[in-house]
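Entry 12.
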Amino acid sequence: MADILALAADNLISPIVLCFALGLFAALARSDLSIPEAVAKGLSIYLLFAIGFKGGVSVAAHGVDLTLGLSLIAGIILSALLPIVAFALLRSITQLDRLNAAAVAGHYGSISIVTFVAATSVLESSGIAAEGYMVAVAAAMEAPAILSALWLISRGESGRMDANLWREIMLNGSIVLLVGAFIIGGVTGEEGLKEISSFIVEPFKGVLCLFLLDMGLVAGRGLAKGGKLLGWSSIAFGVLMPPIGAAFGLAAALALGLSLGGTVLMMTLTASASYIAVPAAMRVALPEANPSIYLTLSLGVTFPFNLVLGIPLYLAVASAVSGG
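Predicted 3D structure (tokens):
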């Protein structure tokens, strides 16, 4: 416990977390601080491209092997399974109806790429290497959770499953950019990275700080508006589900024989909750579901929990289990 608290304390005073805290404070204090939407979009595009490209370069250096394929399969299975676990927990401890519970559950099988990037940054700061192909695993975990959410709701109420939804899922901008940058990085390798390292390596953490400042603003505004719709049981779910998901990720990482860094990233992926790809799909598939509920839980509760406490917890647990 002391190690976890020490890691959390170190994480609390990192520029990344402090920038998120600044945005959260500004929003809750009703400051007029804001980041233009176009700038925020540009920051997210930069982060997705940078992390995808560097992941592709790592795979090119590492080579494609059986562990990569098994990791992708494990990620897809976990993404499909975790919404079912989340749905059961939501229905047992909260008063959410089936529709909103299924919509929320879908967010907790998919992933938050920004949480993944933050965990990657923590590992880099600690000098811990991780498998580069975890970026591909992250991309593979976006869509299955959405399908599971629709399956859950189809057992009770109708969800819309048509060509438009499939397009929304498979051609979501974040997935296309992440996978595309990953392929470019894999094709160009180390030489390609050298050519643009001054763009995607040195400025990375500074851009991440600005992006998390914007995320703090968004989360704070969501809490101010959507917090009234959530009871303590729903907020408890937003804190309990990440460690539950991380436990599934830990089991998968140990079975796959991932490194310490890879284990932390797998735990982070299964502990995170989407607030980009899944909300976009839910607007198409389940328009009756309340966005204030699922966005407030994923972005206003789970995201800050993972950023401040979750990532240090997953690192400490993975280190203890692996003896690292």
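Annotation: The CA atoms of residues 79 and 109 lie 4 Å apart. The chain is about 80% helix and 0% strand.
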